[in-house]
């Protein structure tokens, strides 16, 4: 698997990909991030949009990256991809989709979990489509109340 990154450029706000990423080395640029697009051709990128390819493709063959929002149609569930110690993960609970810090997640370093994620579909990402973070299935989160005193 190649270590590949994507991010939006500072000047054009367009998505670019790169195998080489660097933090500024001169004083006035030391907090800036750069991608090498071609040999010796570097472009400044917006740090918060940097996401790494996680090594898994979605159901349509698109590369899944950190920050992507995935959909599981069979269960009407939404997931976001984020970095955790040791790799990448997706949220376990639908309520966690909107949260900045997720405490319960499914790690993607195990092959079983990785193959399951490849059956999901990329619907967007947290930077271009933040409205998708509100799509958590309310049906999935509902509990069913039974009246045990009622006879059928």
Task: Describe what you observe in this structure.
- Strands 11-10-9-8-12 form a five-stranded antiparallel sheet, with no helix packed on it. The protein has a four-stranded antiparallel sheet with strand order 2-1-6-7.
- A hairpin with a 4-residue loop joins strand 8 and strand 9 (77-84).
- The longest helix is centred in the C-terminal third of the chain and has 7 residues, at 111-117.
- It has helices spanning 111-117, 138-141, and strands at 5-8, 15-18, 21-23, 33-38, 41-45, 51-57, 63-65, 68-72, 77-84, 87-91, 105-107, 121-125.
- The chain folds into two domains: 5-48, no CATH class; 53-141, YopX-like domains (SH3 type barrels, Roll).
- With 152 residues, it is mainly beta.
Secondary structure layout plus pairing:
Layout: E1 5-8, E2 15-18, E3 21-23, E4 33-38, E5 41-45, E6 51-57, E7 63-65, E8 68-72, E9 77-84, E10 87-91, E11 105-107, H1 111-117, E12 121-125, H2 138-141
Antiparallel strand pairs: 1-2, 1-6, 3-4, 4-5, 6-7, 8-9, 8-12, 9-10, 10-11
Précis, in short:
This protein is mostly beta strands and 152 residues long. The protein has two helices and twelve strands.
Query: Into which percent range does the helicity of residues fall?
Result: under 10%
Structural class category = mainly beta
CA gyration radius, whole angstroms: 19 Å
Question: Architecture of the largest domain, CATH level 2?
Answer: Roll
Enumerate the strands of the largest sheet in spatial order, edge to edge or round the barrel. 11-10-9-8-12
């Amino acid at each position: 698997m190649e270590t590949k990154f994507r991010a939006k450029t500072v000047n054009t706000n367009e998505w670019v990909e790169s195998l080489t990423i660097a933090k500024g080395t001169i004083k006035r640029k030391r907090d800036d991030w750069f991608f090498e697009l071609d040999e010796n051709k570097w472009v400044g990128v917006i740090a918060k949009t940097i996401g790494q390819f996680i090594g898994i493709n979605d159901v349509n063959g698109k590369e899944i990256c950190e920050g992507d929002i995935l959909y599981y149609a069979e269960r009407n569930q939404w997931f976001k991809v984020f970095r955790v110690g040791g790799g990448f993960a997706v949220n376990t609970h639908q309520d966690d989709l909107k949260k900045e810090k997720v405490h319960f997640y499914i790690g993607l370093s195990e092959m079983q979990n990785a193959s399951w994620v490849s059956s999901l579909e990329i619907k967007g990402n947290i930077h271009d489509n933040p409205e998708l973070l509100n799509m958590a299935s309310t049906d999935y989160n509902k509990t069913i109340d039974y009246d045990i005193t009622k006879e059928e």
